[in-house]
Amino acid sequence: MLLVKDKPEQQLLAKLRQLCGGENRQAFRCLHLTLSEMAGKASVGSEAQVLVAHELCVFIAHQVDDPEGQIFLCPDNDIFVLAKGLTAKHMRMIEPVATHFVRNVRNNEKPVYLYDLQTDCEKIIERVVNKLRLHEDSCECQIINFPLDEELIKTISERRTDRGTPEILLVTSDASLCHLMSDSFKEWQLISSAEDKHAAVLLYTLKAPDMVFLDGNMLDTTGFDVLETIVKLDPDAHIIVIGTKGDHQNIARCMNMGAKGVIEEPVTRDKLLTCIGHCPSLKLKT
Hints:
With 286 residues, this protein is an alpha/beta fold. It folds into 2 domains: 2-144, Alpha-Beta Plaits (2-Layer Sandwich), CATH 3.30.70; 151-283, 3-Layer(aba) Sandwich (Rossmann fold). It contains 14 helices and 10 strands. It has a 5-stranded mixed beta sheet with strand order 1-3-4-2-5, sandwiched between helices. Helix 1 packs antiparallel against helix 5, helix 3 (47-63) runs antiparallel to helix 4 (88-101) and helix 10 (197-207) packs parallel to helix 11. The longest helix is centred in the middle third of the chain and has 18 residues, at 117-134. The relative contact order is 0.11.
């Protein structure tokens, strides 16, 4: 297996973006060892923890039978393993070893997570993006200017048309809005969510959704940037801004920037369904 130590989060993000946009993603899984959370912030980057992380990388390389697999060792000593054939058995083998090495694991902490790229692509991408944002001062430019795959951008419209099932992207950090969306459309089970601009743009490029619901409460922070960036990537993007509070100036600005509609508060299931009924690509799939 290949050990990646140079800009590991950025390289992992690029690899995930490549895999999640292709048909081969069902063969891959990703393990995440949360050493930084297990050991506590005080010891992150200490010599002892660096040695622990390297020992674990060697142990993992001997347990996972994929010569082309990759181990990403992050600056905070978190470890991501991206390989074919990863199973819950591997997780059960690695977990006690990690717990043994890191003495001060809290009882309720889960040291190892296993993700299936077929179903959990957006989750692992969001986790990596959030890790990058934790040291935003040092890598903010790398996140904002992270190169998106040109081929994925060019094929957004084609992939959206070819996909027979509906796909909706929700951009919000509001848990109640996430609950309303998932409850309103639980029969689809194809609703992705992103909490910030970077995750939203990456997921849009990867998933080519039929429709985007953008939380209007984010307009004063990153919402306008999300809207502008997605419309530039895909002029046919069907974006609805939801939860606005009757701010006519912001509503007009959203519409001028390319939003297809606005839902003012209160947001209800009936209002969401009405907007979906006006989305051209969703009409063909529902």
